[in-house]
Amino acid sequence: MKTLAILPAYNEEGKIIISIKDIKPYVDQVLVVNDGSTDNTETEAKKEGIVVITHKKNMGVGAAFKTAIRYAQENNYDVCIHFASDNQDDASYVPKFIEKIKQGYDFVQGSRYIKGGKRINHPLFRILTTYSYSLIFSLITFKRITDATNGFRAYRTEIFKNKNINISQDWLNRYELEPYFFYKVIKEGFKVTEIPVLKRYPKNKKIGYTKMKPFKDWWRITRPLLYLRLGLKK
Q1: Which of 35, 71, 75, 204 fits a 20 to 30 Å CA distance from 159?
Q2: Contact present, 107 and 190 (Cβ < 8 Å)
Q3: Are the C-beta atoms of 20 and 45 separated by less than 8 Å?
């Protein structure tokens, strides 16, 4: 089973190296999609001897994932693993993802909220918003998901052979792609499960734990659920 770790990165100088070194021993290849960074993200990633694809300008995390998935398909990777480029995830959980894939699951979602999951330095606001979003996601998809916003996940690349999952749409270039994909995987009947993982945020609040902008980007991760549920998008 050929595995590819996907790290979308935008201005992650100083953190990208830590993430690459963490996950490198657990997968066959690491791919960093440098989404128009203006710092040394690209230089640092290339020093680690992994594959780096660079967008000349910032196009959005959804566009970065599209680039990565095309690479995975073109190079015959069986499993893609989404991993944070800012040192929020713990790569020691990767074998557990792979184990679930080998057991027959198509899509394995990491969760900090189920038994065995861990949260480090999470502000109350973040806990409330991620938990609330997961509740909405569960109600709309009719499947209990405890941590729908967690980007740490693994899935079979062959999922994209399903013609009803169309990630090439232009409206999926930013934060919309991941909730769109998760929703469609459930609705198309793929075998989905969650496993406990760790999610850590930096102690220094000035560093920040997300690049998402309040209201604007929360709407971006919510609208795919509404559009798909109401039949406004496919």
Answers
A1: 35
A2: yes
A3: yes
